[in-house]
Design goal:
Layout lengths: L7 E3 L8 E2 L12 H4 L2 E3 L5 E2 L2 E3 L2 H16 L1
Antiparallel strand pairs: 1-5, 2-3, 3-4
C-alpha cells in the first residue's frame, strides 16, 4: 500500500501502512470493527486504532520517532 494525496492511515504501533479492518479469524467482527475504528496490522499483527497524518513529512517524522524508541 503506498502513500497517496489523501490522509495517511498508519498502524499506531509500528507505522505500517498495510492495515485493514480485522477479519473474524483476526479477532474482528465484520462490519463492526471498521465502524469502531479498529484495524489489524499485517506487519506487527496487532489490532489498533490507526493514526492519521496530513502529510508524508509528518508520517516520516513518526517513523523516525518509532525507530528511536526501539533503539532505547
Amino acid at each position: 500500500m503506498g502513500i497517496d494525496s489523501k490522509r495517511i492511515k498508519a498502524c499506531a504501533n509500528c507505522g505500517n501502512l498495510d492495515i485493514k479492518p480485522p477479519t473474524f479469524q483476526e479477532g474482528g467482527i465484520p462490519g463492526i470493527s471498521e465502524v469502531a475504528g479498529v484495524y489489524y496490522c499485517e506487519k506487527c499483527g496487532k489490532k489498533t486504532v490507526p493514526i492519521f497524518f496530513d502529510s508524508e513529512k509528518d508520517y516520516r517524522k513518526f517513523l523516525k520517532e518509532i525507530k528511536k524508541k526501539k533503539q532505547v
